[in-house]
């Protein structure tokens, strides 16, 4: 069960313990506690989302992590070439989409969990991510700063920080790897909307949230195509939400891979047509 943090005027309710913010000596304790709660929440949602606070990077190998705002392509290049070596049959489209998805998935997921499970937001534009041979998972922050406000305000703040994080790097990747800006935006939107559905499924209180409203806000604050919202639908009978991806990950081009269930290349399901009632006319 995920733990939640609720804001109540000048107090923070932390798992039944009340701290008054006017007492400055507790401030660092509170911020550290909240950030640790975020780390626990993200790992409860996905074991790969292991977060930590690192005050010094002296003991971390330079190529073992990436901070997107530094626009350093060396760790990204290494992963890109490892993907090529591991799946030489996949082709350039797969490598490009895969590397961009790896870069984006954690910051988006962490921002969503932070806002809707912890009612706050760390410094997303300064997030660090750990690089592995052909993947990126695990993250860290260097400062235990955590902003708290309304969900709508935090979402706008997250959008600004994530745009600052993603788009300058995307422009460099476009020059270096010829990644399509339009396709990259579709991938970013797919990740965001699919993770919103993920929260809707696993966070109990999130089921009462207007998912359509949340999706519109996130697409707007990330400056993404609004046409993507048409792929988010709700079943009129079960009231379950479904999303069909706008972009293809091209993973099917790797050996022994099939199309993803949400892939846009999957044939669209035929709409069920109810049989017309048989009308019998009694003879006069």
Ordered list of secondary-structure elements with their pairings:
Blueprint (H helix, E strand, L loop, with lengths): L4 E4 L2 E4 L2 E4 L6 H19 L5 E3 L11 E2 L7 H13 L5 H27 L2 E2 L5 E4 L4 E6 L4 E2 L3 H27 L3 H22 L8 H11 L10 E3 L6 E3 L41
Parallel strand pairs: 4-8
Antiparallel strand pairs: 1-2, 2-3, 5-7, 6-9, 7-8, 10-11
Helix pairs in contact: 1-3, 2-3, 3-4, 3-5, 4-6, 5-6
Question: What's this entry about, in short?
Answer:
The chain is α+β, with helices and mostly antiparallel strands and 284 residues long.
Would you mind describing this structure in some detail?
This protein has 284 residues and is an alpha+beta fold. The protein has one domain. The protein is 42% helix and 13% strand. It contains 6 helices and 11 strands. The chain has helices at 27-45, 74-86, 92-118, 151-177, 181-202, 211-221, and strands spanning 5-8, 11-14, 17-20, 51-53, 65-66, 121-122, 128-131, 136-141, 146-147, 232-234, 241-243. The strands form 4 sheets. A 4-stranded mixed beta sheet has the order 4-8-7-5. It has a 3-stranded antiparallel beta sheet with strand order 1-2-3, with helices on one face. Strand 2 (11-14) and strand 3 (17-20) form a beta hairpin. Helix 3 packs across helix 5 (181-202) and helix 5 (181-202) runs antiparallel to helix 6 (211-221). The radius of gyration is 22 Å and the shape is globular. The protein starts with a strand and ends in a 41-residue tail after the last strand. Residues 1-19 and 272-284 have low confidence and may be disordered.
């Amino acid at each position: 069960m995920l733990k939640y943090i609720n804001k109540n005027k000048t107090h923070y309710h932390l798992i039944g313990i009340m701290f008054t913010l006017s007492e400055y000596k507790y401030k660092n304790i509170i911020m550290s506690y909240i950030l640790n709660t975020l780390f626990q929440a993200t790992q409860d949602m996905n074991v790969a989302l292991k977060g930590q606070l690192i005050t010094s990077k002296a003991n971390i190998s330079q190529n073992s992590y990436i901070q997107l705002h530094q626009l350093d392509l060396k760790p990204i290049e290494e992963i890109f070439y490892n993907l090529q070596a591991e799946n030489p049959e996949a082709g350039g489209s797969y490598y490009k989409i895969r590397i961009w998805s790896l870069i984006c998935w954690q910051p988006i997921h962490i921002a969503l969990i932070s806002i809707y499970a912890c009612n706050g937001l760390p410094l997303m534009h300064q997030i660090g991510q750990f690089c592995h041979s052909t993947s990126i998972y695990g993250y860290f922050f260097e400062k235990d700063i955590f902003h708290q406000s309304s969900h709508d305000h935090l979402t706008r703040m997250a959008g600004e920080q994530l745009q600052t994080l993603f788009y300058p790097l995307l422009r460099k990747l476009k020059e270096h790897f010829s990644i399509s800006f339009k396709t990259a935006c579709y991938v970013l939107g797919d990740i965001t909307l699919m993770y919103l559905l993920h929260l809707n499924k696993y966070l109990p209180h999130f089921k009462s949230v207007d998912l359509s409203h949340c999706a519109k806000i996130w697409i707007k604050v990330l400056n993404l195509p609004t046409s993507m919202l048409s792929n988010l639908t709700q079943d009129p009978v079960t009231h379950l939400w479904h999303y069909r991806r706008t972009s293809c990950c091209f993973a099917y081009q790797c050996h022994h891979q099939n199309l993803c269930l949400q892939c846009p290349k999957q044939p669209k399901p035929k709409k069920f047509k109810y049989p017309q009632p048989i009308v019998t006319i009694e003879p006069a």
